[in-house]
């Protein structure tokens, strides 16, 4: 039986370690994560045997797939995307804004991404978040601008996102509702997906681009 050279074994161990470490931070948030545990056991057993068949075709492809899967999920958390849902009710408009904590951190230089993913940290930054959102998401009813009220901020560490809930009180629903949405406008790549509902009925669906 042929045996692997020492440098080959060490290379595979380093490769597996990278995949393993990438997986640790994301497995909790992954609906169906790759079975890295069984792959790791197979790797250890093969190294101990010194078998040239250290990585079977199945293991090689599975590890490669796991690596691509995890790095794709890591990159997804930094995509320049945000989602805004507006719900028009008889007594006000409810807004839900969700984007990555990193996107919010870019707009608030004094605030770090990590702080926005921590409950105690984000509580300290509520005023900054409201000021930023109020300057980028403006709503008027029959030409009268509505004043936003912060309803809640929810860190989503598993997705590395932040969800912000805003309320725009109304005495009555006007004949015209105007929405000005330029969230994260400093990033020309950024896209905001905007949905507007009246009650449970979707009235508008579109995209806004950063800087436009």
Topology:
Blueprint: H1 6-24, H2 36-49, H3 57-76, E1 81-89, E2 92-100, H4 101-107, H5 113-116, H6 119-124, H7 126-136, E3 137-141, E4 144-145, E5 149-156, E6 161-169, E7 177-181, E8 191-198, E9 201-209
Parallel strand pairs: 1-8
Antiparallel strand pairs: 1-2, 2-6, 3-4, 3-7, 5-6, 8-9
Give a description of the structure:
Helix 1 packs antiparallel against helix 2 and helix 1 runs parallel beside helix 3. With 212 residues, the chain is of the alpha+beta class. The longest helix is centred in the first third of the chain and has 20 residues. It has 7 helices and 9 strands. The chain has 2 domains: 71 residues; 129 residues, no CATH class. The N terminus is likely disordered. Strands 5-6-2-1-8-9 form a 6-stranded mixed β-sheet. The protein has a 3-stranded antiparallel β-sheet with strand order 4-3-7.
Quickly give the structural class. alpha+beta
Percentage beta strand:
25-35%
Overall 3D shape: globular
How many strands, which pairing sense, and closed or not: the largest β-sheet? 6 strands, mixed
In order across it, which strands form the biggest sheet? 5-6-2-1-8-9
| Beginning-to-end CA distance, first to last residue | 65 Å
Rg is 24 Å
Order of helices and strands: HHHEEHHHHEEEEEEE
Oligomeric state of the chains?
single chain
Give the domain tally. Answer: 2
Beta strand count: 9
Helix fraction by DSSP (H/I, runs of at least 4): 25-40%
Q: Count of helical segments?
A: 7
| pLDDT < 50 stretches | 1-9, 18-33, 66-76
pLDDT averaged residue by residue: 76
């Amino acid at each position: 039986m042929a045996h692997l050279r020492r440098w080959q074994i060490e290379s595979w161990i380093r490769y597996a370690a990278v995949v393993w470490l990438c997986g640790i931070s994301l497995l909790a948030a992954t609906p169906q994560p790759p079975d890295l545990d069984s792959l790791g056991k197979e790797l250890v057993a093969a190294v101990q045997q010194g078998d040239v068949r250290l990585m079977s075709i199945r293991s090689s492809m599975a590890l490669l797939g796991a690596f691509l899967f995890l790095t794709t999920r890591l990159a997804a958390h930094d995509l320049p995307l945000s989602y805004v849902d507006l719900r028009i009710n008889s007594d006000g408009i409810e807004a839900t804004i969700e984007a990555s904590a990193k996107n919010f951190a870019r707009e608030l230089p004094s605030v770090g991404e990590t702080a926005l993913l921590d409950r105690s940290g984000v509580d300290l930054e509520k005023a900054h978040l409201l000021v930023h959102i109020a300057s980028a998401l403006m709503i008027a009813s029959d030409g009268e601008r509505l004043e936003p009220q912060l309803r809640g901020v929810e860190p989503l560490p598993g997705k590395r996102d932040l969800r912000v809930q805003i309320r725009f009180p109304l005495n009555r629903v006007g004949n015209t509702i105007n929405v000005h949405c330029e969230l994260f406008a400093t990033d020309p790549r950024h896209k905001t997906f905007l949905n507007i509902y009246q009650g449970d009925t979707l009235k508008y669906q579109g995209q806004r681009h950063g800087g436009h």
